[in-house]
């Protein structure tokens, strides 16, 4: 069973999401929170696999709450909920460790698909959508961030850089394997190695790093 915590200051939104998720056999809603300041305690109490996190809340917003979760020893995956796909906070959400985002009017079937993917350790955004999102909301990288990103990439091996660039270009593991003449297992091993070496949570953050370095 996939354990889900719902965080939103709107009681109707929480009720609607809970009703939808509770109707699915492999998902259970283990708890709810009405503000970001309640999230750490709720996570410790309920032990969710996935947190559906609203961005705008009265006391502590979902981005700050996500940052607090990601420093836990075994943090849950976070899917940030937002009203607009052009919301500038989406980029910050991905940078601080969220596995992706959903629009609040996302169809139920897509929400379930996202929850299952994230629970399985995959970003909820497809590689193509990830690239489109980054291009749409990132605008440009500041000079300092660009320098840090370039320096980080320089610390990688040549092969690791090739894999990172392919991720940044929105390619799937199968496409990376075909392009670099690597088996799927080897590609997965490189992706895992990159996440560990870069201290990142998912491939979305790798794509953001590549974007910041100016390679997208």
TrEMBL record:
Coiled coil: none annotated. CDD domains: LuxR_C_like, REC_NarL-like. The keyword Nucleotide-binding does not apply. SMART domains: HTH_LUXR (SM00421), REC (SM00448). GO terms for molecular function: DNA binding. InterPro entries: CheY-like_superfamily (IPR011006), NreC/VraR/RcsB-like_REC (IPR058245), Sig_transdc_resp-reg_C-effctor (IPR016032), Sig_transdc_resp-reg_receiver (IPR001789), Tscrpt_reg_LuxR_C (IPR000792), WalR-like (IPR039420). This is LuxR family two component transcriptional regulator. Residues 149-214 form the HTH luxR-type domain. The modification 4-aspartylphosphate is found at residue 54. One of its GO terms (biological process) is phosphorelay signal transduction system. Transmembrane segments: none annotated. Keywords: DNA-binding, Phosphoprotein, Transcription, Transcription regulation. Residues 3-119 form the Response regulatory domain.
């Amino acid at each position: 069973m996939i354990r889900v915590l719902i965080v939103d200051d709107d009681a109707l939104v929480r009720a609607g999401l809970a009703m939808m998720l509770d109707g699915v056999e492999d998902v259970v809603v283990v708890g709810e929170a009405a503000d970001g300041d309640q999230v750490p305690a709720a996570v410790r109490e309920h032990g969710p696999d996935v947190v559906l996190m609203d961005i705008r809340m009265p006391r502590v917003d979902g981005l700050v709450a996500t940052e607090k979760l990601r420093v836990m020893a075994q943090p849950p995956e976070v899917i940030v909920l937002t009203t607009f796909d052009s919301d500038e906070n989406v980029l910050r959400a991905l940078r601080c460790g969220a596995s992706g985002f959903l629009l609040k009017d996302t169809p139920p079937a897509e929400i379930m698909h996202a929850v299952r993917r994230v629970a399985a350790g995959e970003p909820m955004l497809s590689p193509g959508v990830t690239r489109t999102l980054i291009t749409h909301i990132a605008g440009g990288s500041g000079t300092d961030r660009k320098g840090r990103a370039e320096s980080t990439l320089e610390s990688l091996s040549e092969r690791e850089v090739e894999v990172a660039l392919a991720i940044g270009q929105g390619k799937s593991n199968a496409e990376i394997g075909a392009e670099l003449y690597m088996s799927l297992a080897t590609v997965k091993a490189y992706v895992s190695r990159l996440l560990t070496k870069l201290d990142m949570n998912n491939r979305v953050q790798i794509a953001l790093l590549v974007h910041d370095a100016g390679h997208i």
